[in-house]
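Exercise 3.2. Students should predict the tertiary structure of the chain below and write it as structure tokens, then compare their answer with the key that follows.

Predict this chain's 3D structure.
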Amino acid sequence: MRLPRRYAWWGLLALLAVLLGWQMHLSEPEQALAVACPDIVARCELAPAGLQVRFDHPPRPLQKFQVMVELPGAQAVHASFNMRGMEMGFNRYRLLPDGPGRWQAEVLLPACIQGRKDWLMTLEVDGRRYELPFSSL
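Answer key:
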């Protein structure tokens, strides 16, 4: 008994949908590791990675500050800034090499119209993600 051609097309479409869903599942970003950082200006060390992060001064919305990261052997470093439950627009920064194992970027936080100061920096280093909460002035 031979199936009609339309069933073959539906089967092919179902197979493509399953493969696309599987590919999307494989490409989901790795869950970020939450890291406590009591004073990000003084320096925070993210163990066991050996990653160090600091700001050059306490951040204020609409005022530039430097984000500095140290990790020997790192290939790519990016940082983005949001608040829990509140997207703050596109503000993803690519940190640039600043010597062996050192990376830096000049950052400008957007202003929050609700007056919130509870920020969350998502730091991506070679595909690994870290979340560091901090407060602005």
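Discussion points: The chain has one helix and ten strands. Residues 33-135 form a domain with the Immunoglobulin-like fold (CATH 2.60.40.1930).
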